[in-house]
Amino acid sequence: MSNEDATATAPTTSMITEPASIREYNRGPITKYYEPPSSCAATMSFDGNMYYGWGDAGILDTACYPMGTLKKEEIEPASTWDLYYYSPAVCPGGWDTITKFTSGVGGVDTLTSIALGPGTSAALCCPSDYVYHTFGHVCTSMITQGQSLNYVIPSTDIGGTLHIGNVTTSIYPSASHAFANGVIVMWQSTDVPLLRAATINPNPSTTAPSGPPTALPSASNPTPTAPTNTSSPAPTASAQGLTTAAKIGIGVSIPLALLLGLAFGWFLFRRRRPPPAYVESSGNRLEKYAHVVPVHEAYSEPAEIGGNDNRGGKGSVRMEQEHQRHELQ
């Protein structure tokens, strides 16, 4: 390929700066204490990789992520998990502030970003024991050799009905990683008094012991180093055994090189995820807000954004892609 051809086919980065377009990615505020139930981390889903709260096969437990002001059906399209944020908001209880963004917040495809306006802070929150994967809002956690994990392997029958499957317990034969969709929060200094209430657990005796209430994101939070290998070796089934479908599903090879493993694991994360189905679970749920809290974003010259989807106005900046979502749904 000539240099001219390489230049012509190179991907370009799109920065969204028009306030109205930016607001379309806002899922709403987190101004009341919210902490996902411990079951979100205790039972994962498996489809080539392990996923927190959602998975490749399209399961989303709506108790595992804050809903903001959205309804279940509004968070259903796979495209809504490519680029999103909550504002004004703080991290969910038991989650950690992993990294801060300075100029913009990128999507999973890393080619589309939301610009940050003057005075607007943004941070990525990940579940406890997860670190930043360096791609968009993706978090990752180490699975150690010999670690026991509970998980489900979802499947779809010939009629298109999704079956979550039974919980399987397996032992990992070698070290690997699990994935999770992080929660991106945005706020301004004027929001701090409002947000302090979201850091206080009103029922500490009824909440799983996942650590102290989340503090407001600050610049003092460290940015952990991303892992170098993201593929998942097939876990070894416990005495209860695996179904035939499970045995086929977990036949994932270990990459020959760390870089190849990173690329392959990320390819699975981006490309193999179909539109999600939803299951309700017990646990703490974020109440729907009766009012809309002012949101602070960019106020610069608008960029040209063409096309429309079912949420309006994001056709050319939101890349069409199948999204894995446990979005680990």
TrEMBL record:
Recorded superkingdom: Eukaryota
Keyword Membrane: yes
Keyword field: Membrane, Transmembrane, Transmembrane helix
Low complexity compositional bias, start-end: 216-238
Basic and acidic residues: bias regions: 317-329
Residues covered by region (Disordered): 200-238, 300-329
Transmembrane segments: 248-269
Protein name: LPXTG-domain-containing protein
